[in-house]
C-alpha cells in the first residue's frame, strides 16, 4: 500500500495549492509547516516521497533531507526553491534530491514530478523493506551454495560483477545481496533494465539531462549513475544496450566520469556496477553486437546462476516460501501442496525458472479450491493440457507420469503391473468399441493375435462383448 506524500512548507498558500492538486489526483498526503514538525513525525511514520521548501524557519529542507536519507536512503525528495537560489539547488542535488521545483511553479508540472518520484519510490524499494521478513535467496542445492560462497567472497570487493543465467533465475536478488553485504551497503542500490527502456530515453535515464537539453526537458534531472552515487548500480539485460550507449558506459567505467545529456561539466561517478544478462555475450561480441572492450570491463568477475531444473531439490522449499508470501500479501490462509502435487511440481522443467514458480504459487493462492492442493488443482498448462481438456486430454504420457508420481507418493507397491493392466485394458476396450465388438478386426488393429486378445480379456477380467469375426 502506498504511503502518503509529505508536503513541507511554511507558506500556507503553497501547502493549500499542493493539497488541492494531490486531492484531485487521489494521492494521499500529509502537510507540515516546518521541517522540525516533519522530523518529529519521522519518528513513527514513513513518507512515500517528500516535497519540501528549501528555506523555512528552523531546520532547512536540505537538513531535513539529510536526516531522511540517513534513515530512508531510497525515499525521493523534491526540493522547492526560488529562481534566485540556484546555489541551494546545486546543494540539493549533492544531498541526493530527486528533482528541484522552482517557485512560482506550474501545478501540472509539480504533479508530473511528484508522479515520477512516486514511480521511482515504488520501483526502488529500500533493501531493508524488501527483505525485512524474508530470507535473501533461498536454496540448499550445491549449485546455490556456490553462489552463496561467491557473494561472501565478494563482500569486501569493489570489483565489477557480471551475473549470467536464464530469465527468471533471480539475478536482481543476487545483485541486491552483493550490495547489501558490501562496503557500500549504507548507500543506494539502483536497478535499471536496459532492455525495458526505449533506446532514445536510455541515455537520459542513465546519465541524466540538463534543463532544455531536448524537447520536454523542463528541469534538470539526475540519472541513475548519480542516484547510485557511493552505492551500487545494477544494469540488467546489458546485452541489449545500443552501441552508442555501450561507448558511453565504457567511458564511465574507464575514467569514472560522465556528462549529463546537454551538459558540459564532467561528473565523477563513485559507483559499483553489477551487470546481468541472459544472453551469450561471447557470441554477441563475435557477431559485432557488443563491444569487446566493454565486455572485458564488465566481465571482471562472472557469477552464473543455475536454472531451476538444475536445482530441483530446492523446489519444495521455494514453493512453501512463495505460497506463504502470496497468502500474506492477500491476507488469506496459506495453501498446502499434497505430497503428490509437490512431487509433480519438482519434476517440471520451469523454463521461466524461479519467477515462473513464484507466479504459479500466486495463481494457486488465488485460484486453487480448498486448502490442500492436488495435481488436478494445478493450472492446465502446468499439467500439460490444453484449455478445456481433461486430465489425460492433450498429453497422455504426462497424465501417466502424474499417476506414477501420485502412486509413489502414496507409498503404493506393484505399480508396474497395476498400470500395465490398466494400459492393456484401455487399449482392448477402446479397440472393441471401435470395431463394434469384432475381435478379429480389433486384434488386427492392435497388432496382436486373436487368441492373445481373448486371453487378455480373460486375464484382465474385462466386461466386454465380442464376436469371433
Domains, number? 4
Gross CATH architecture of the largest domain = 3-Layer(aba) Sandwich
For the biggest β-sheet, the strand order reads 2-1-3-4-5
What's the alpha carbon Rg, rounded to whole Å?
31 Å
Tell me the span between the first and last alpha carbons.
74 Å
Low-pLDDT sequence parts = 124-135, 385-394
Which class of the largest domain in CATH terms? Alpha Beta
Secondary-structure map:
Blueprint: E1 5-8, H1 12-24, E2 29-32, H2 35-41, E3 49-53, H3 61-71, E4 77-82, H4 86-94, E5 99-103, H5 107-123, H6 127-130, H7 142-153, E6 161-164, H8 171-180, E7 189-193, H9 199-207, H10 224-227, E8 232-236, H11 243-255, E9 257-258, E10 267-268, E11 272-277, H12 281-286, H13 292-298, E12 301-304, H14 315-330, E13 336-337, H15 339-346, H16 353-367, E14 372-373, H17 380-383, H18 396-409, H19 415-434, H20 439-446, H21 450-459
Parallel strand pairs: 1-2, 1-3, 3-4, 4-5, 6-11, 6-12, 7-8, 8-11, 13-14
Antiparallel strand pairs: 9-10
Helix pairs in contact: 1-5, 2-3, 14-16, 15-18, 19-20, 20-21
